[in-house]
Amino acid sequence: MPGFSPTHAAWSLAAQLDIAKLFDQAHWIVKGVMLLLAVMFVIGLYIIIYKRMYIGRAASESARFTESFWKSRDIEQIYKAAQTLRNSPISQMFVAGYTELAKLHSDPALKDDREGNLANIERALRRAQTVEATRLESGTPFLATTASAAPFIGLFGTVVGILFAFLDIADSKEASAASLKTVGPHIAEALFATAVGLVAAIPAVMAYNYFQRRIKVLRSEMEMFEQDYLNIIKRHFLR
Question: Where are the domains of the chain?
Answer without folding.
Answer: 22-236
